[in-house]
Amino acid sequence: MKRLRVLSFNIHGGRSLDGKRDLGRVRELMDRLDIDVGIFQEMDTRRSRGGGPADINLLAGPDRPHHFFGPSMFDTAEEFSGREEDRGWFGNLMVSRYPLMRGMVHNLETAAHREPRNAVDALVNTPYGNIRVIGTHLSLSIFERRSEARNLLRLVKAVEETEKNPILLMGDINEWQVPSRLLKFLDSHMTPIPCKGTFPSFLPILKLDRVWYDAPNLKVTAHRVPAKGIRRLSDHLPLVIEIDFESASA
Q1: 200 contacts: CB under 8 Å, gap ≥ 6
Q2: I want to staple 196 with a disulfide (CB 3.0 to 4.6 A). Which of 93, 116, 145, 224 is the partner?
Q3: 28: pLDDT confidence band, cut at 50, 70 and 90?
Q4: What is the CATH code of the structural domain delimited by 3-248?
């Protein structure tokens, strides 16, 4: 089957609700779900939070050797001394089984904030064709979220591609208001995929994590991963997105 499986997951810094920091459990979840591309929010390699340079490889595992990250905060000079490339960071992360042909980080800020927001945007070279995957984490403030969403779509559309590729947009949108001007705005530009609530993980009633796509010739579906066995892995539950490339030739 010509299928791509993508995981979107706010991993709460890799720290579960039992207080244990164990990125290996997230990797085991990806292995169990046969995930090709993982999109993570709140990845944290800062030493001040118990992280380190090996965290990305620990999370991705040997089956996903292609990595791209969008830091929004770093270890401070007081918290870190060493090689700059080993400096810890907090932000968005993409790991992939397949090569990333290009990657860029979109700065979504219109003004400086305590926790800057960005989006990782990469072109994944799958055996079935290229697909553009974008992951983000928007602010808690409704006014900041709206501004970030406008900036995101403007920056995504400004990228000059030599060919039109399918697009997936996903992440922790932090929008719980219904009806929502923010969701209506995003829905008007891309096709939303209805999913169940993901937050909080012990009683997932809020649909903070969402998925959109622009792939007219492909069948794209998404679902929330059942909570049994992973409810305490993070304060969010993950989403799995499946892209059926066989539908393009049907």
Answers
A1: 206, 235, 236
A2: 224
A3: very high
A4: 3.60.10.10
